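so the lab meeting is tmrw and i was supposed to have these ready like two days ago... anyway. pasting both below. for each one the top line is the aa sequence and the line under it is the structure tokens. i havent really looked at them closely yet so no promises
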Amino acid sequence: MVLRSMIGAHVKRKEDPHLITGKGIYVGDLTLPGMRYVALVRSPFAHANIGSIDTSAALQRPGVVAVITGKDLIGQCEPMPVAGDDDVAKLRTHYPLSIDRVRHVGEAVAAVIATSPEAAEDALDDVLIDWETLPAVADLAQAVSNDAPVIFDDMTSNIEHIWERMKGDVDGAFARAWRVLKQRMVSQKLSGVSMEGRAVLATPDPASGGLTVWSSTQIPHGLRTELAKSLHLPENSIRVIAPDVGGGFGVKGAMYPEEVLICALAHRFQAPFRWVETRLEHMQATTHGRSQFADVEAAIDSAGKVLGLRMYVVGDLGAYPPIAIIPELTGLMASGTYDIPAVDFKATCVYTNTLAVAAYRGAGRPEAAYYLERLMELIAAEVGIDSTEVRRRNFIRPDQFPYKTPTGSLYDSGEYEKNLTKALEVSNYAGLRAEQARRRAENSNMLIGIGIASYVEICGFGPYESAVVRVEPSGTVTVYTGTSPHGQGGQTTMAQIVADHIGVDFDKIVVKHSDTATMPMGVGTFGSRGLAVGGSAVMNASVEVRDKARQIAAHMLEAAAEDVEFANGQYQVKGAPDRGLSLAQIAKRAYTDDLPNNISTGLEATNFFRPPETVFPFGTHVAVVEIDRETGITQLRRYFSVDDCGPRISPMIVEGQIHGGLAQGIGQALLEEVIYDSEGQLLTGSLMDYAIPRADTFPQFVLSKTETPTPHNPLGAKGIGEAATIGSTPAVVNAVMDALQPFGVKHIDMPLTPQKIWRAMTNGKA
């Protein structure tokens, strides 16, 4: 039997048939007998003390069973885990239903329980709360000022911590510089806007005395661990299942108050409970992303070489951040693809009376790439050369890898100039510049701009990931992965790996995930780690299965194990392909007693892969925009993406990830922004106010690649899920700024709305 190589092949996704035929199962689709529905009373204020809560009118509503407040949960669950030292964090947290005080609009303070979701929703306005409003601070710059209202009582300011890294003679670099360039840049606050909002259903498990929980989460095992801690239950009495999950992008990568609440209610009342987020709640209560500003200074010589870099970032944490390291990830990538000898980076992490800021596609790395790639354009304008040449003069060279950056990252491998050259060829960069020159000479009403961005990102985080590869007696194969894919195509990619490594037909492989009762202990899917870490565990387990299959084949062929090889999809005696066995033949024997004593029964393997280091994919993007001189309306005309994620196991999956990443990165550049007013009121609380890109926002993307393997995993693969988001935002902004160059405009903060662009052209603001 000869099998087609599956690694690197374009194959149809295993995930798609049940989704496109309407057979997907989401938490919101699930119902159980006797189920109760929960709606949440949320704070209308950004900062307020909670007085009395009158639930009497709500309880008179038909269908309302009970109204629960935070005080009812005391003793049943712990306060929510938040970032920081455990002892200190306890002073800066809240219960799943907040007690005494709220610190952002949308914070839940009471739960209405009813026999239908409509009855629960109708009763919300009947819960009357006596509020005492307090001064709020929602603006990030104001939050670090000396006269800002302080959000937490145990603090004298809103600064949670400061993270600093310095290497090289920074002051000396600036003292001897030909020019010093300075620019403040803003990476605005964003919402994840996953197609499916968050949802959770919990029901008692009579057998264990615990709970079975369905949640739209990216981290089933992590959620189980945190729920057990919070609810004082044994970890093995909680089962967490993530069914079909309609997008995550990082915002479903932590435990939320609603998950603890629903589980606490199910355990308290010994009945099933469900909560499904509305879109309004998503904007108010599902963590936001980005929300930084940076003061960037570069010391350069007359050729455009960066001698020294100062980057001072102020990062928004919101009120109750589940993690506080996003600005630190910006710091780890602060020098990007460039060999900068002296760097001074400081991140000041600040609380505000807004929703928590946490992981969102790229998490800290898009911010770093944005600051640096905008800086390269400013340097090019100052020196008077093309920005591609500035990048070439500053790139880390291939012979410098592995490369330790000034802020502490260890880059594994990279060929940045080769990748840039490929992007210029694919995009016909010279031709684009010629067209731009013609347009400007003609004083065309349609301005054309060309933007470049060369990025590198960190991904493939540990500490481990797991896999079980089991060959059934029939020769079919079941793969169990500790990752929790939710749109990434993990089932397809992992099946391709297994098919090639053990000799089974792709269609005979089933990949299972996202159920803590049946999967090996796993970390989850986030940070572009699914293939680099989870796929490596699958590959290692496959190799173990293949080695055992060779031993069984040797017994069956009456040959020495060292004389049996896996070739052409079968297990054969070396040099004698006619003496070969299929995996199905071997599997049938593996589950009998006709085996030598030194070979155990069965044909499966478990592997836990621990990556020795993180990995660093990179790429170059070229964006071409047209801007109407009269209106400021920007149209993305062409887009070229040349990404290097190492070997591409499943090219179609990679392309899909790039398309999605481009959509979100371009959305940040042109459209998206979460806005709070000075009192902490959310002004972009729905999709009527928060603009997201549509299909007609984009041209057909042109994708290409270079391929630089990593030495840090057996696949040589790097991540791709966040890469396009990281490269696309600065590429598009650089294109718009390039179009506006004749007007003397140097920088505009995102999103680049027509109003901002028109005003910049009219006023010539730099």
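ok protien two:
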Amino acid sequence: MTDTSSAAGSTNGGPAQSAAKMFEVRDPTTGERIATCPVHGPAEVSAAAARARAAQPSWEALGHEGRSKWLGLWRDWIMENADPIADLLQAESGKVRQEAALEAPLVCDAINYYARKGGAFLADERIATHNPLLKGKALKLVYRPFPLAGVIAPWNFPLLLSLGDAVPALSAGCSVLVKPSEFTPLAALELVRGWTEELGAPSVIEIVTGGGEPAQTLIDEADFVQFTGSAKTAKKVLTRAADSLTPVTCELGGKDPMIVLDDADPVRAANGAAWGGLANSGQICLSVERVYVAEQRYDEFVEALVDRVGTIRQGRDEPHYTNEVGAMTNPAQIEIVEDHIADAVARGAKILAGGKRLDGPGDFFEPTVLVDVDHSMKVMREETFGPVIPVMKVADEEEAVRLANDSNYGLAASVWGEKSRAEQVARRLEVGAANINDVLLNYIAFSIPMGGWKESGIGVRWGAAGIRKFCRTESLVITRLAATRSEPMWFPYSRGKSRVLQALTRLVSARGWRNRLGLKPRR
């Protein structure tokens, strides 16, 4: 994920707007200013945190069913306003219509998922005791929400990675303080406005905007932080959070490999690579960023990939679905893409499609296919986060796995080939998520946790773990019968009591240990 250290946003229904500092939001397809938003200072962020924190106890007291009713009303409002929300997303991000139109429904799907499953995920767990000496005790694990969860979001998915992350936190019973990116705050602001102004819902969502300063204050104020961004910025977040020992989960960058085995359908794999590498102009954490193709399928794959990329329409999209690839959201990202391509070409790579920035207004970069690449090149080792697909020929499955694992990143991967074989290959990859004969689906498979290995993250989102991470666990040990006024282990100590306790302990622990190993008891 690209850097969000300067991420900012704005507010509706949040802190009082500061007239001292403002920032501009621009349309990436034209470069034109479309809005101005305030930069919130530490006092404003702290005030927003205090309001959210004050509202949390009554929100938690509603119970999961009561919270789900409010979230359901929000879902309905979002769907009723899906078109104007998509308009905002397109204007601030440069996405094509189909991609912009998906985000609000995905947030609604997350609401539905946690409304159905969250109650069971948060229910008290009865734990079996391991020791006969504790048979008179009941053991329970209780999930209790952090009062205030902070969400620091990037610009590539302005809703799914901000308010989408807020959904399980709200479902768990937290209040949430969100800071969207300064490049894409508008759609998130509109959803929060809908919650507060249109629905009159409890004041448990606050949204603040600005650069690194509001993010730092958010970290100071929150009891738990979900961060999505670069590894570089994550280290700053973790360092800041360490001062207060605030727990953090991070979804970070990726250099996601795609492996095409010798028994794969090369045309299907090429079509998957085109979508997986170029959707949202390649600005997806799970984008296909490097492709390893078995030599038996290499020529067919490359030909099919170049053919598919050649049919892709690019440009400013209207609500009529006229294009497949839009603009780059962050102008600085184009410089990284250009640098990676120039470095690859200088080291012997060939450009078979695209390769340059488009002339004219807006931040458009052509869908690009590179071949003759290797691991000496930045494009195979550093996160590109743009519409570039580098393809490398490999001798066999073993070489593909070795090269796929030769990375500091470990977010996601895809493997293409006969299903059972491809699954076995996927199990050897050092990644937190993998697709078999498909791409990108981990982000919307809400029922299974998704997180990165290595420098691609800490913790997960989605699934049971995705809501439980917003909770503290409390372990309860309950005495079922308290028929006597004392217990054998309590004061006073005595030699006789000690001998009885030691004998019982040895009987349960030592003798049981030898029996489990199949050893004869000592005489």
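from a quick look at the 2nd one: Confidence is low (pLDDT under 50) at residues 1-13. The chain has three domains: 22-252+462-473, 257-439, 487-523. will dig more after coffe
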